[in-house]
Design a protein that fits this description.
Cytochrome Bc1 Complex, Chain D, domain 2; two-stranded antiparallel ribbon; globular; peroxidase; signal; heme binding; cytochrome-c peroxidase activity; Cytochrome_c_Peroxidase/MauG
Amino acid sequence: MAVKRNRKKEWVYPVAAALLAMLTAQGCRKETPMPEPEPFGREPYTLAIPSHFPLPESAADNPLTVQGVALGRKLFYDGLLSANGKVSCATCHRQELAFSDGVAIAAHGVSGKPLERHAPALFNLAWHDTGLFWDGGSKNLESQAFGPLTHVDEMGMDLGLLEARLREDATYPSLFGEAFTDGVTAANVAKALAQFQRTLVSGNSHYDRYILNDTGTSALSEKELHGLSLVRQKCGGCHSGELFTDNGYHNNGIDDDFSDGSHEWIHRGRYRITLNPMDLGAFKTPSLRNVMVSAPYMHDGRFATIGGVLDHYAKGIRDTEVTDRLLYQNGDGPGIPMTGEERTAIIAFLHTLTDEVFLNNRDFSNPNN
C-alpha cells in the first residue's frame, strides 16, 4: 500500500503575500515588521531577510532586541554554561562549518562519552516552525536550549548553579539587566540564545545571487544549471523552496530495523514524539544550503561524503512500509535513478549553495576573543 506522509502544508496568507511582493519590488532584502518599542531602552533588532525567502513567523513572546541578541551571542561562545566550564554551544557548532562540528557523533561534551545523534548545522532557524532536534522533540529554540544545557553528556549543567555563576560574574548581571526586565534567570539564558540563533540567516550564496540577478556575479555554469534542474526534479519533494527544506519529517530508507534498545527511543525518529507508527525512522529534512561544508550527513552522521548520500538515494534505500513514497522514483521500487553525469551536475550545483558571507560573518563570530 502506498504511503504518503509528511507532505508540506501550504497556507495562503493574502496579507503576507502582498507584503512580500511589495518588499521584493523595493529591493533584494526585506525586513521584519517593527515590533512594539521595548521598555527600559531595549532596542528592537531588525532581522534582514533575503527578498526571495518566505517571511518567518515572529516569536511574539521573545522579540529580538539588540541587547538580547548580543547577550545570546556572548553566551553561545562561553564555556561558563557547562559543568566543567569548558564546553560551549560553539564547541559542537562551528561557524566555518555552518555551525555544525564536522564529526559523525560528537564526544566533546563534559562526560567525554559519544552522543547518540549528529550535531545539526545551525542557520535559518527563524523558519524552523515545525520543531527542533532531528525528531522535532522541541517546540522552539527557547525550549531546545535546555536539552544540551542539562544533558549529562553535553553541557551537564545544573540550572540553579548556572544562574549563580552568571550572577557572580563581573559582566553578565548588567548584560542581562539590559536585555531582560527580570535579569539573570535560566529562562532568559534560553531566550538570549534563541534570539542570537534566529539571526543566523544564510541566503547570500552564488545560487542566491543568480536568483536575485545580481549583475556581474549571478551566472551559473551550464553544469550548475543542469544540477539545479535535477535537484528540483529529483530532490524537491523534501528539499523544497528557497530554504531547500520542507522542515518536515521523512523516513528516507536508511534503516529497516526500528528496534531501539535506548531507553529514550532515540533512533526511532519522529515516532518517539508522535507515537504514530508511520513516523518510525522519520527524521527532519536538513537544508541543502551549505551542505558541502557540513559533512558528515544524516541524523547519525553515517555518510562521510556527499557521494555516499547520492549512492544511498540511487541504490541503497530500504523498502519498508514506512519508507517515504517520494523516494519511489525507480518504477515501483525505491530509489532515485541518476547517471554519473547527473551526479556530477548535482554536486556542482550543491557547491553553489555554500554561503561564504555567512561562514565568515563577524557578527556571528566569537565576541569573547
